[in-house]
Structure formats: C-alpha cells, structure tokens
Design goal:
Blueprint lengths: L3 H19 L3 E4 L2 E4 L2 E5 L5 E6 L3 E7 L2 H12 L3 H30 L3 H33 L1
Antiparallel strand pairs: 1-2, 2-3, 3-4, 4-5
Helix pairs in contact: 2-3, 2-4, 3-4
Length: 147
C-alpha cells in the first residue's frame, strides 16, 4: 500500500540533502539553520552561534545578527579569517549601538525634562546612525560572499 506521509517525509529528507550539498542555507527550525557542514544555532542568550561540523563540532563565532552568522559561514568556507573578524567587530558595534538607541529612544519618550529629552534625542540619533552604518557594512559583506 502507498503511504503518502511516509513518502512525503522521505522526499523532504532528500530535498534537504540536495540543498545542503548545493550550498543553500536550509532553515531546519526557527532556531537552526544548516549550510553544508555548518550549523547556525540560536543560543540561550539570543545570539547566533556558528559551528563547523567535522569530526567534532567546532565553535566558529557568536553573533548578534543572523545575517552576521550567515556571512561568517560563507567567509569561513572561503578561509577569509580577517574578514570574519571584521564582521564580528561590526556585529558588536551594531549590538551596542542598537541597544543604546533603544534606551535613548525610551528616555526621550518618557521624560518631561527638556534638557534630558534633547540629550536623549541627540544620543539616540548618534547611536542609531552608528548601528545603521555597522549593519550596512555587514549586509555588504554578506552580499559580496553570495555573488
């Protein structure tokens, strides 16, 4: 007898195998992405861990942004360690300034004091601009690795 569910499960497994071998990022779950011999896993602190799965699972990097983790995979595959460090540095810059911008934005919205409000707005604009710039560098690095 023909079992549709079993056949569908086998087909899904075959498609995942083909995708992994061809170099496509394959989302396995919301917290796990596979790429060839790499695993990108959301860690308990919310960051993304990049692991290389050879005979033992080696930790390559931890990043705040998912796109940074994807970029690290592609660069590690091409042995571009200096560029990985640049991505990690920009990821840390983004994380710090993004968090700061959220705090300054909240302070700006909640305070009634005009001096504090103006200072918070000014600091928000600076932190937001730095975070945006770091994100643009990371995005650019990712797009250059996939083309």
């Amino acid at each position: 007898m023909f079992n549709i569910q079993e056949t569908a499960h086998e087909l899904e497994g075959m498609l995942k195998d083909i995708a992994l071998k061809s170099g496509i990022f394959v989302p396995i779950s919301k917290d796990l992405i596979k790429y060839k011999k790499y695993s990108i896993i959301r860690l308990s602190d919310g960051s993304w861990g990049v692991f290389y799965n050879d005979d033992k699972k080696r930790h390559i990097a931890s990043t705040f942004l998912k796109v940074s983790a994807l970029t690290v995979c592609k660069m590690h595959e091409k042995h571009q360690t200096a560029r990985i460090q640049e991505v990690e540095r920009n990821d840390r810059i983004f994380e710090k300034n993004y968090t700061d911008s959220l705090i300054y934005k909240n302070t700006y919205k909640k305070t009634a004091d005009t001096v504090i409000k103006d200072t918070a707005l000014w600091r928000y604009e600076l932190a937001h601009a730095k975070a945006k710039h770091a994100k643009q560098i990371i995005d650019s690095a990712f797009y250059t690795t996939i083309t």
